[in-house]
Amino acid sequence: MNLFWLYLLMSVLTYASRRAFLQMPDHWLSPRMRNGLRFIPVGIFAALIFPSLFASEQQWVFQPVPLVASAVCLLVMALSKNVFLSFGVSLGLVVLVSAGIL
Asked: Fewest beta carbons less than 10 Å away: which of 2, 35, 67, 74?
């Protein structure tokens, strides 16, 4: 039961800290700081994806299919500005290659 209260308390604290940050007046942050904060989600996404492209079972490997699919995803995203389309195209590419169709 103590673990439940710990999770509950940590979730409330996390929510409160994020909510307080979002309620902060705009003039407290410089334009450079606001611009930098916009790239945090992209950095987190890259940090989660990058290891899976080059590491497998604690070793560095070259996996061309995920690497090409990532490049296609970035290209489609740059051209269309549509996140769902870019993920769908790159996922479809991986599925087609894995199934032996391409």
From this structure: 2
